[in-house]
Amino acid sequence: MNQKVVFEKLAVKERTQYLELFLLADESEAMVDRYLNKGEAYLIQIEKKTIGVILFTFSDPQTVEIKNIAIEPRYQEQGIGKQTLALAESHYAAKGFNTMVVGTANSSISAIVFYQKAGFRINSIKKDFFLHYPEPIVEDGIPAIDMLIFEKKLKV
């Protein structure tokens, strides 16, 4: 993929228009509603076409969390996610953040591989996190039970 990924800031009042995209990464609308209006959100675009969304929250002045990252399925496996992470890392490193974290389900094998290839390391586990979702989540026959928290140190 040699097309350049860019971010376009998404105002809080516009976020619900892209709920379908946010739900690609988090199947529970009730859970997405908990964070949709928090933090900073961006459209992920290539040649001015929106192909995904990313939302960040801030637990402390040094840490940025990727709360949701979703790319339309037809644009996956093309290096767009890798470019998106690189753009996010440089953007927040330049703003003075030194750590980026992201959580994913124990059952999200492709996401686990993706984050590790991008230089993230497992930092902690939130046991039973997905047992609080309204509906059970099963991926590739694996029930989502625990959330794996990945962390990456940012370089300025």
From TrEMBL:
Signal peptide: none annotated. Keywords: Acyltransferase, Transferase. InterPro entries: Acyl_CoA_acyltransferase, GNAT_dom, NAT_camello-type. CDD domains: NAT_SF (cd04301). Residues 5-155 form the N-acetyltransferase domain. Pfam families: Acetyltransf_1. Its EC number is 2.3.1.-. GO terms for molecular function: acyltransferase activity. It is an enzyme of class 2 (transferase). Coiled coil: none annotated. Gene3D superfamilies: 3.40.630.30. This is GNAT family N-acetyltransferase. The lineage of its organism: Bacteria, Bacillati, Bacillota, Bacilli, Lactobacillales.
